[in-house]
């Protein structure tokens, strides 16, 4: 069968539109939207997002990207890792819990999920998720630069004791699992939890970069996260917070062997919003199970030094419940009061920004009142009108995009803006019927960006 040239097709579409009396713009809309509307309605039929609450390059990100790569083959659609960092894990875990429960959003949850709400940073808990599987577990270790003066934990503890607050450490955000790991050792060593100043950094990868740059004196994180730098001889490990030595690195002593009865670990697991349908949950679970139990995934864990700790949804849920109770006791104890207390709460800077915005608005109002000329007042009113219009457009999109979909919502908003700008109605209709479908076609169909789908699938 001969292929019809693309330019001939468009000429044919144009002529059919004219002959049938349908405006060209309307006919063009139909042509552009047909590929989107003709999508397969089976699940999955568009990209899946895997939310990672931590920075790119860290252990959680590496595990997430390996699983995403294998899930793409299992599910037959792209699986995109999204690094939603910030707030010590609050941003990513909250975004994942509040995502649409349609099976197109998963989250790589970590131990911080059971810590954040005890610290008053969020009301999100493990109960807002439906766990799929626990996929990894690693013990913490303590790292210093290769030229650091301390050869073991006792020498480091003595240096901290002589100059409390002088040394700096990182590995994750303030109050995260690696911060708690270091604080637990300090308390075990008879020191205060804040005798080492913790520098809040979202993830082990940027923390290790800061260690190499001399910005911090030590980093607490899992061994796999620091493996490449350790193998290159750029850093040393003073000990691993585990019951036994690492099989691949038997030269590194445990904290217990050095006289400190302290161990700490983190875990990683996959979960989805708790309102997901059983059918889509089961399909995701089967795909995740195939990945986590595959030789390829276990080979990745072994080569990277990550620990394998796969658990079924039932066992994972039980683990989350028990750990949540454990962290509740820890963070409510007197010993960890210094770890969880912060000088500024999570809403400190948002309140500052809101206050500044209020001052600016007050100044604008006062300035407008001082201008007596009609033209000046008219211009001020127009400025306020445009400002209100833009804010209103954003609110309309937030309120109705999920129900109506991107195309209808965008058309309504664009129509409102063009009407306010006094654009001729025929020109406005042409702009709306061309720009919005083209945007949808580009982002949703060709780039496969997960836009709000709405009632009609677009």
Automatic annotation (TrEMBL):
SUPFAM superfamilies xrefs: Periplasmic binding protein-like II
Record keyword Ligase present: no
Entry's transmembrane regions: 348-366, 386-419, 425-447
Sequence ranges assigned to domain DUF1468 in this UniProt record: 340-452
Pfam family, one: TctB
Keyword terms, alphabetized: Membrane, Receptor, Transmembrane, Transmembrane helix
Gene3D superfamilies, A to Z: Bordetella uptake gene, domain 1 (3.40.190.150), Periplasmic binding protein-like II (3.40.190.10)
PANTHER family: BLR1237 PROTEIN, TRICARBOXYLATE-BINDING PROTEIN
Family assignment from sequence similarity: Belongs to the UPF0065 (bug) family.
The protein's name: Tripartite-type tricarboxylate transporter, receptor component TctC
Species per Swiss-Prot/TrEMBL record: Fodinibius sediminis
Taxonomic lineage of the native organism: Bacteria, Pseudomonadati, Balneolota, Balneolia, Balneolales
């Amino acid at each position: 069968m001969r292929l019809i040239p693309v330019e001939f097709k468009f000429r044919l579409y144009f002529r059919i539109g004219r002959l049938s009396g349908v405006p060209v713009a309307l006919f063009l809309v139909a042509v552009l939207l047909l590929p989107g509307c003709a999508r397969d309605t089976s699940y999955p039929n568009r990209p899946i997002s895997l939310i990672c609450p931590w920075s790119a390059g860290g252990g959680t990100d590496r595990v997430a990207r390996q699983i995403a790569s294998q899930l793409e083959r299992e599910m037959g659609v792209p699986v995109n890792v999204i690094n939603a960092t910030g707030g010590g894990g609050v941003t990513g875990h909250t975004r994942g819990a509040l995502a649409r429960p349609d099976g197109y959003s998963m989250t790589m949850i970590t131990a911080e999920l059971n810590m954040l709400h005890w610290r008053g940073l969020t009301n999100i808990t493990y109960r807002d998720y439906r766990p799929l599987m626990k996929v990894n577990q690693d013990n913490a270790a303590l790292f210093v630069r290769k030229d650091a003066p301390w050869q073991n934990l006792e020498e480091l503890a003595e240096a901290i004791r002589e100059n409390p607050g002088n040394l700096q450490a990182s590995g994750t955000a303030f109050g995260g699992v690696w911060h708690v790991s270091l604080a637990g050792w300090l308390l075990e060593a008879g020191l205060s939890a804040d005798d080492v100043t913790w520098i809040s950094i979202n993830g082990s990868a940027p923390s290790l970069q800061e260690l190499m740059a001399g910005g911090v004196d030590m980093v607490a994180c899992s061994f796999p996260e620091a493996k490449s730098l350790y193998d290159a001889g750029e850093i040393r490990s003073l000990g691993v917070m585990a019951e036994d030595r690492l099989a691949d690195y038997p030269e590194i002593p445990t904290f217990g062997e050095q006289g400190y009865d302290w161990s700490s670990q983190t875990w990683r697991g996959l979960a989805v919003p708790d309102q997901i349908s059983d059918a889509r949950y089961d399909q995701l679970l089967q795909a995740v199970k195939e990945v986590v139990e595959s030789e390829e995934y276990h080979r990745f864990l072994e080569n990277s030094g990550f620990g394998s700790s796969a658990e079924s949804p039932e066992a994972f849920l039980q683990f989350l419940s028990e750990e949540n109770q454990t962290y509740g006791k820890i963070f409510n104890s007197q010993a960890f009061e210094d770890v969880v207390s912060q000088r500024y709460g999570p809403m400190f800077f948002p309140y500052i920004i809101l206050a500044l915005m209020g001052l600016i608005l007050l100044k604008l109002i006062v300035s407008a009142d001082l201008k007596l000329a009609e033209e000046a007042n008219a211009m001020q009113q127009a400025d306020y009108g445009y400002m209100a219009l833009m804010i209103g457009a954003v609110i309309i999109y937030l309120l109705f995009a999920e129900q109506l979909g991107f195309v209808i919502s965008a058309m309504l908003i664009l129509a409102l803006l063009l009407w306010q700008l006094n654009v001729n109605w025929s020109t406005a209709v042409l702009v709306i019927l061309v720009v919005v479908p083209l945007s949808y076609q580009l982002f949703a169909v060709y780039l496969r960006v997960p836009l709000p789908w709405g009632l009609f699938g677009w």
